[in-house]
Amino acid sequence: MNLPKESQVVEYKRKWRDDFLKELCAFANSQGGTLYIGVEDDGSICGIGESEIIRVPSAKQRLSSCTEDRSREDNVQALMENLPNKIHSNLGFYAEVNSHTDDVTGYKFIAIVVEPLDEAISYNGKCYIRSGSTTQELRGQELATFLMHKTKTHWDELPEPRATLADLDYKKIEWFVGMAREKRGVSWEYSEENIPTILTNIEVLREDGLLNNAALLLFGKNPQKWFINSYIKCASFPSTKMVKPLLSHQMYGGNVFELVDKAVEFVSSRIDASVSERTRGAAADIEYELPLQALTEAIVNAIVHRDYMSTASVQVMLFRDRLEVWNPGTLPIGMTIEKLSSKHRSIPVNPKLARAMFFAGYIDELGTGTTDMIDRCLEKGLRRPDFVEDGDFEITLWRPEKTETGHEAGQDTGHEIAEDVLKKLNPRQRAVYELILRTELLTAKTEPLTPESEPLSENNEPLESKSEPLNTEQISIKLGIPYSTTKRLTKQLESMELIKRLKGKRKGFWTTSKANGENQ
Length: 520
What we know:
alpha+beta; 4-stranded mixed sheet; 17 strands; about 15% strand; disordered C terminus
């Protein structure tokens, strides 16, 4: 008879000991599982031994008369009769206890099948869970997180009694509403009077009028004032090992959207990138050596699904051959490393944060992040990402062994930029400049552009709206760069006098200096 290998849901024991009740406790607290008695660690069946006697109070009299030559059959029967009561009296639930016979040896063994339970189970006052093929006792922070999960309570929905609406940044809420309208088509209208309704819609303002933890992480003026562990640490190393001196090191604060943007900016500015052939009209495509979507997803995953009860911070570490994104906390109960590689249901550790990130377009679809990450990397010819859970959770994205420089931005635009200026621009700056420049060429007229100008083609025919002058938000969307990063890039180009912002009755937009009759 071939039995499955030991795993998170399978455990082998040669003979029964009462101490093995903690394994059954761990199964009940995790995904369930089966404990086999009479099976060696390698899965070979040794059978229930002749001295395999279970001692329970209700069977004292009968068992005291047992002799050393007690048959295997008698011992199997004793276990079958007494294990169910022993399990119930010590753990509070009934398990299925079955006897089996090996087809080859004829030896008998027992399988104790435990179903996962919604409530927390303890043995001798301690809680256990399964982690891989081992049983671990939960203590301290891990125990608190586990009990919150079992009571269906999440950290991000806990109230913060000291916080009021005055602790929130209304501009961040206004930006969020704009993103939700564009990305998800919501009908919310922003106004200061409407803020309580907006916060209620995304479930960060409770019925009792208290803000929950998620509200402060999403929109707080200073989230780190409330949660000192919510910083994100980024580091770049010169080799494949964690050695000093570091190439660079930053610790970022801000709300969760800003943390994602800053961490993505940190990595994307330190990996190879090129501007490739255009595939989206006027917009230039920035090709990073790591897929930007996978990079962003790894960082979003760490920030949204981390354990905020831990005193540790999210860490993003860039090595010569890989990117490691590490977050405190383990996978939610019911999720395994294996499940991450295939379609699975979403089990967010912090569902309020996840929901808000979805509305803002930082999460495309709940439950598909890890599979999308895998697909993006494989499509680019990179190694499959690694997911590791060892007390904490880690995602590794593998960099290519060799990278090639793509096409230079500014080529074939019909508009020359001084060579010494080009050399000063990084790929992201060049992409922003080229997009603005290309849009100008499509909307060009004999007079300087103004916000009131009606863009015309070379044949003096009105152009489609996609060819209209671009504001910062539109540049962000077309290039797939975070909005805060785009603001920083446009300000950098403006300080270099390569672009200028025009304002008018309607929304302002960006134009190159030459488009306004200025010399570069």
